[in-house]
Amino acid sequence: MSLSSTIRQLPKTLSSFIPAALIASNTVLGGPATCSNTQLSCQNTTAVADTCCFNAPGGLLLLTQFWDTNPPTGPTNSWTVHGLWPDNCDGTYEQYCDPSREYTNITSIITAAGRTDLLDYMNTYWKDYQGDDESFWEHEWDKHGTCISTLEPSCYTDYQPQEEVVAYFQKTVDLFKTLDSYAFLSAAGIVPSTTKTYTAAEISAALAKPRGVQVSIHCRNGELDEIWYYYNVRGSVQTGDFVPSEPDGSKSDCPATGIKYVPKVSGGTPPSTTLSTVTSTPPSPTSVPGVPFSGRGTLPVTSNGHVNGCIISGGAWYTTGTCATFTAAPSGSGFTLTSSKGKCAVSNNVLTCSSTITAPTIFSTTDGKLLYNGSSSFYTSSVPTGSIQASVSVVQQATGLTIGWKGA
Q1: What is the pTM for the complete model shown?
Q2: Active site includes 139?
Q3: How many CB atoms lie within 10 A of CB 62?
Q4: Catalytic residue among 138, 139, 140, 164
Q5: Residue 144 falls in the annotated catalytic set
Q6: Burial level of 347, CB count in 10 A (0-12/13-18/19+)?
Q7: Which one is predicted more confidently, 174 or 70?
Q8: Is 140 a catalytic residue?
Q9: Measuring CA to CA, which residue among 75, 321, 77 is closest to residue 192?
Q10: Which of 139, 144, 218, 226 is catalytic?
């Protein structure tokens, strides 16, 4: 019996520690066939047929990070993981590419693979600001991981169910460990502060220096809260070489000056006393028709059968970044919604939340969906991508969506 055959008969938890060099030269156990193609993704001039060794169409990989302060997540001196996203080299991207592999048990999959070390790290550095890490991980895998071509099950030799899921989270964590954003910024004198502000040029230069290429920085209400790092890949995501790349069509959206970098210990902009009191009361269930939303929560958006982003504070649909928190308060036969921007209403057929609104719309709910005039149907002209925000209308357009509730 050959050495490679012997290795393949070992339990998975043992064989995963066997160096690839000990396996037959044309095979990597638990991975794609050894890639002889040296073409860098997004740099090809002709089509590459072997998408097990060449990431396509999502050849630009983004490692994205959060700086959550309200509530704070992760260590106070570290950014946290958002995800690993395949972009189509031009700012567009595919999503939810394989419904048959949209899993709802990421924790169980990683545990069954014997990777409790990976899970422990994720429990510290890959955090959901609402405390639902599992749902966050499921979303990242379902929306982005299923669209990485080199993670297709058919790319594996001796494929074990869901091993590509573990590979996705492991690679994301491995990349994150090389990108200490807190240290990069600190080295340039950019540290969290309740009083000091920074320019976009200062922040961008500090983050570009260690890698030699630019990044995208993103802000919410003038506060730095997200960084996107870009890579092209030579070979597969599992075993290939990640080469730092310039941003594609997704650009930074922070103001040029006056950017706040708020300490996590401060909790960001504190909510009012009234909202703090409300959070101690669990929201009413929304699965029973006619029971209104209650307390504080977010408004996740479902389109084409998948949850994709949420409604942000101004009333628009946004598919990246942190969801806004809304307050639902009983009113008449339904409830009103209020965000940090102000009261919400359907104004000129568009969902809008603003301090200028004096007569908020009274919404209702059924089956956990937001209703306006008895209908759960809302629309946009297209699905927003990157930093684009889409206005949400009650007038029929190309893309239909529904709005749910997730209690804080």
Answers
A1: 0.61
A2: no
A3: 25
A4: 140
A5: yes
A6: middle
A7: 174
A8: yes
A9: 77
A10: 144
